[in-house]
Amino acid sequence: MSLSLDADQLDRYSRHVIMDEVGPAGQKRLLDGRALVIGAGGLGAPVIQYLAAAGVGTLGIVDDDVVERSNLQRQVIHGDADVGEPKVESAARYVDRLNPDIDVETHETRLDEGNVRELIAGYDLVVDCADNFRTRYVVNDAARIEGLPVVHGAIYKFEGQATTLVPGGPCYRCLFPEAPEPGTVPDCAATGVLGVLPGTVGCIQATEAIKLLVDVGEPLDGRLLFYDAMDVSFESVPFRKNPDCPVCGDDGIETLDGIDYTGGCRVNAD
C-alpha cells in the first residue's frame, strides 16, 4: 500500500495526518477503504456525511426510497430541491460536492435475503442504518457468513443505541434472538423522532467505522451503547456471544437458505 498523499489530500486531511493514531498511513487506509451504508435516511445521512468528509474512498449506499419533505427535519444530506428524487442519487450528489476523492456506488434497491450477499461483497464493513428489523437480521446474518463487521444503530423518539458486531464476537442475534412481531414496535412515522437524535447516533456509527478502517481504538464489540437525549445520558451494557446462537454459535449457519425473515426472523432448527 502506497502511503503517498497528494498536496490537496495533505491539506484536506491535515488534522488526521498530524495525529499519531492516524497519520499518513491511517489516512491512506481510509482512502483505500470501502464501506457500505444500508439506508440513506436519518442515521445514514450523518454516517455518509462524516465518512465522506473523513476520506473513506468508496462509499456504497443502499436505499430504494425517495426524498420526502418530512425527511428534511433530520436527514441532513437531502434538501428541498431533492424532494421526489431517489435518496441514493441525492446522497451521491451531496458526497460529490463535499469531497471529490470519494467514489460513490449507488444501489437503488431494497436489500433482502435474495440480494444481500451480492450487495455486501467487496466491502470492508457494513454500516447498518436500516429502519426495520427484517433488514437488520438479514444484514447481520449475511455479514457473519461473509466475515464482515457491522456497525449497528437504531433510534426511537428520544433514544438511540449503537453497537459494533465483529467476526468472532457476538452478533445481533446474541442480543435479540428474534424480532418482535410486525406491528408491535411503531416506526417514527407513527411516533415521531427528535430531529437531532439520528445525528448523535449516526456520528457514533461513523466513529466506529473509521476506527475499524484505521484499526485504532476499541470498538463497541460486545457492548450495546444506549443514549437518552432527554437527560443526555449514555449507558454501556455488555453482552456476550451465545454459544447456541443459530448464526454465530458453534453450529452457525453457512447460508441464508431456509431462514424465514417474516415475523420473528427465526432460523429454522434443522
TrEMBL record:
<feature type="domain" description="THIF-type NAD/FAD binding fold">
    <location>
        <begin position="13"/>
        <end position="247"/>
    </location>
</feature>
<dbReference type="InterPro" id="IPR000594">
    <property type="entry name" value="ThiF_NAD_FAD-bd"/>
</dbReference>
<keyword id="KW-0067">ATP-binding</keyword>
<dbReference type="InterPro" id="IPR045886">
    <property type="entry name" value="ThiF/MoeB/HesA"/>
</dbReference>
<dbReference type="Pfam" id="PF00899">
    <property type="entry name" value="ThiF"/>
</dbReference>
<dbReference type="InterPro" id="IPR035985">
    <property type="entry name" value="Ubiquitin-activating_enz"/>
</dbReference>
<dbReference type="GO" id="GO:0005524">
    <property type="term" value="F:ATP binding"/>
</dbReference>
<protein>
    <submittedName>
        <fullName>HesA/MoeB/ThiF family protein</fullName>
    </submittedName>
</protein>
<keyword id="KW-0808">Transferase</keyword>
<keyword id="KW-0547">Nucleotide-binding</keyword>
<dbReference type="GO" id="GO:0016740">
    <property type="term" value="F:transferase activity"/>
</dbReference>
